[in-house]
Design brief:
The structure is a single chain. The protein has 468 residues and is an alpha+beta fold. 36% of the residues lie in helices and 17% in strands. Helix 9 packs across helix 10 and helix 11 packs antiparallel against helix 12. It is globular.
């Protein structure tokens, strides 16, 4: 009875807790529009070489174990061009108008047929009418109608496809669905094609397009970031000695789901003490104790787009002197790196700037003797692009930033037990990661709503939470 009484006491607070994304319609209505996806197809076709065809597959259904599949996740390129989240589909894009099965145009999509038996188990299938109505395609066919005779691949000077890199090529032969059959058809067409496949051109065009976010995408990314921020803030308030890493994960992901996130953007990393020094630690089983730091690298995916946020907080709400020194060194590196994220500056500048600050700091503290040793404690890059993928397509190296680019800035210092430095530094792992949008004026931190300074974090740790 006591547990039931506590549950009844907490439930009203759960319902009334701050909500970042409040849904008022029967189903979400803030998805990217058909016009957005049509615009992305048009932009790709504009960059295609003359007399070329682009071939893009939906993602395949993947088996988890026995007869249970993983929850379906669409190919990001296919989603970018179509918005369709169903499997067993194929998109053809042509530079010049062509005629297929009596219809003339530059875009043709092949989709799965409606099936009452399958829909009873797995939900509605759109079919030709649904895809035509919802996504405004003119030329929609059933996937079973795609054959080796649908179009003559040798009529085209260039074939643009991500077919092999998307892993369909390696796995289609072992499956029996329509996607696999179509993949087999495309494979046979490619084998008879008398010219090189333009895979590099495909990647270059996709990188150029997806690397610059459109206003509609930025609106979705703002929501993903806001949802992620609330999750991190709830963990800051709730974490305490005696909790486990997986309980911190549960609070984080509860907050994501409460605010409309369909999935975490990637496997949640919640590492305390020495586990914070493992870059992609996802076991999340440790019991946290007084004096530990908790590194939480977790973010929400919203309508296909993901944030990527990391905060490092003291489990007892108060940084130790050594933890504070390392934390503020990482924060100084991050602030310096964010400052150089602006139009015209090189992409590589964020890493060079952050690394310079951290190297100097570690050497001054006696933790490292030189830059080479310092790199052992900061072994990863400072930035990567962000969007449909958590490691999204975009420029690299010394190419300049442009407005609309969206990237992380995430310096870190990791000092595992047994490191060649004073043991007082051991088991301190700190990463601070924010999501930075390049603007005409400079940049904007979309995840700034989650505290970053020692003072702000320690203050929020004292705030009330429904999870204690």
């Amino acid at each position: 009875m006591k547990k039931l009484w506590l549950l009844l006491l907490v439930l009203p607070h759960l319902a009334s807790a701050q909500q970042t994304n409040i849904q008022t319609t029967e189903y979400p209505n803030d998805y990217l529009s058909p016009e957005f996806h049509a615009g992305r197809r048009a932009a790709f076709k504009e960059k295609m070489p003359a007399k070329s065809v682009g071939i893009f597959f939906a993602s395949q259904v993947r088996l988890r174990n026995n007869d249970v599949d993983y929850q379906y996740a669409q190919s990001k390129n296919f989603y970018y061009f179509t918005g369709l989240e169903e499997p067993n589909s194929l998109l053809l894009l042509f530079k010049e108008p062509t005629t297929i099965m009596g219809k003339t145009g530059t875009e043709f999509i092949f989709v799965q047929n409606r099936d009452p038996q399958r829909e009873m188990w797995n939900g509605k299938i759109l079919g030709i009418e649904g895809v035509t109505s919802r996504y405004k395609f003119s030329n929609v066919f059933l996937n079973r109608d795609f054959t080796a005779n649908t179009f003559n691949i040798n009529d085209y000077d260039s074939v643009l496809t991500a077919f092999r890199s998307e892993d369909i090529f390696q796995t289609y032969a072992r499956s029996r669905d329509e996607l696999s059959r179509m993949a087999g058809v495309v494979d046979s067409l490619i084998k008879q094609y008398k010219k090189p496949i333009a895979a590099r051109t495909t990647a270059q065009i996709l990188t150029a397009l997806r690397g610059i976010k459109q206003p509609e995408e930025i609106a979705i990314l703002e929501k993903a970031a806001a949802i992620s921020v609330e999750g991190h803030n709830e963990v800051m308030k709730a974490v305490k000695p005696g909790m486990t890493e997986y309980q911190a994960q549960a609070i984080m992901e509860y907050s994501f789901k409460k605010n409309g996130s369909e999935y975490p953007g990637y496997p949640s990393i919640n590492g305390a003490a020495e586990n914070a020094c493992v870059l992609h630690y996802v076991t999340n089983l440790k019991l946290m104790k007084n004096g530990d730091l908790l590194l939480s690298d977790c973010a929400a995916e919203y309508h296909g787009y993901t944030a990527d946020v990391t905060r490092t907080v003291p489990v007892n709400g108060k940084f130790s002197p050594e933890q504070k020194i390392i934390y503020e060194l990482v924060l100084a590196a991050q602030d310096s790196a964010i400052a150089v994220c602006k139009p015209g500056m090189p992409y590589s500048g964020s890493d060079a700037t952050a690394r310079r600050v951290i190297n100097r700091g570690l050497i001054a503290l006696g933790i490292a003797a030189n830059d080479a040793e310092a790199r052992k404690y900061f072994p990863h890059g400072t930035s990567h692009h962000l969007g449909l993928d958590v490691h999204d397509l975009g420029i690299r190296g010394n190419q300049p930033f442009e407005p609309g680019m969206y990237l992380t800035v995430e310096p870190g210092i990791y000092i595992p037990p047994g490191s060649k430095c004073d043991p007082k530094w051991w088991s301190i792992g700190v990463r601070i990661e924010d999501d930075i949008l390049i603007t005409k004026e400079g940049n904007r931190n979309l995840s700034a709503g989650s505290p970053r300074t020692v003072t702000e974090i320690e203050k929020l740790a004292k705030a009330k939470t429904i999870f204690n």
